[in-house]
Write a structure and sequence with these properties.
disordered N terminus, 15 strands, Immunoglobulin-like
Amino acid sequence: MSGYPFPGDATNRALLNTLVRKAPSGPEFQESAFEYPVVDEQGCTTRERVLIAFASDRTLASPCTVLHPQWVSVWDRNVLVDPAEVDVVHLVPLEEAWHSGAWAWTAKQRRDFANDLSNGLALRVLTATTNAERGSSDPAHWLPPYDGGNCNYAAEWVWIKARWNLTTDPAEYEALKTLIDTTDAGTCGEKPAYVPPLGLSPGVGPASIIGGIGAPSGTLYSLIRVQAFNADHRVVRETRVRPEGFYELTGLPPGGYTVKFLGGTSGTSAQWYSDQGPGGPPEVITVKAGSIASGITVAMVAAPGAAASVPGDGG
C-alpha cells in the first residue's frame, strides 16, 4: 500500500480540539446587542430568508414568502405547514455565543454572527415547542430528540464555534467529545470535516497536525506511533496510528514541529516526515494557533533486515 491523502481537511475530533476551553465569561447577556433580524435590500428579514431557504418548495408567493409552506424541523423531524409553528433558530444560541466570547465583539461582528446566511448551518428551522425546550442550552444540557441527528448536531456546533472562534466550557467540551467519539458506532469523530474560515481573532486556540501513512502490504498500522517534537527537540505530543492508517496530533501550542514515525514492532523503519521522502531530513511544520496542518502523509518502508511484510491485514 502506498501513501494516500487524508480524507478532507480535518476530522470532527481534530476540529473540536482546536477550540479553546474556558468557563463562560462576560457581563449579563444582552440579546439586543446582536441586532437580529436585519432587513436586506429586497425588504426581506433574515427569518424570511431562512424560511425560503429551508422550504420544501421554494416557489415564491411574494419576494419574501413561499407559495406552499412546508418545512422539515431539523432536529425533531416534524413536518410543519403553519409558519406560526416554525422558529428560526441559531445553531449556537445567541446567549451561548455571548458567554463564549461574543460579549467582547463589536456591534457589527455580533450582527454578522446573528444574521449569518453564508452557510446552511448557522440558522435552522425548528418546531417552536422544541425550541422552547432547548432555550439557550449547549450540548451538555440539551440534545435533539431525534437521536439519529446527534453526530451532525455535535459536528455542526463545533463548526460554528470554530468559524467564530468561540470558546467551549469544560462540560460542553466533554459532552461534544462523548458525542463525537461514540455516535454512529464510533465513526463520528473520524468523519471528514471542512475546516471553516475563522471569523474573529483567528489564532487563539490550540493547533493540530493530522495525516496518514502508507506501508508495505500486511503492516499493522496500529503498531506505529507518531511523535511531534518542538523547536527545543522535546516530544510534546505522541499518538498511535489508527488501524485505517490515519493519525491526529491535537492540542498543540502554535510553533514549528518536526514529526517522527516510529515503526516499533510493525516491521517498518523509524523515519521523520520529510519532503525528500523516506530517510530524508526532518521538515519543520509550522502551525498557527487555531489552525490544522492536514495531509502530513508518509510512505513507511521496511526496516533493514525485516521481512517485506508482517502478519496481519492492516495494510
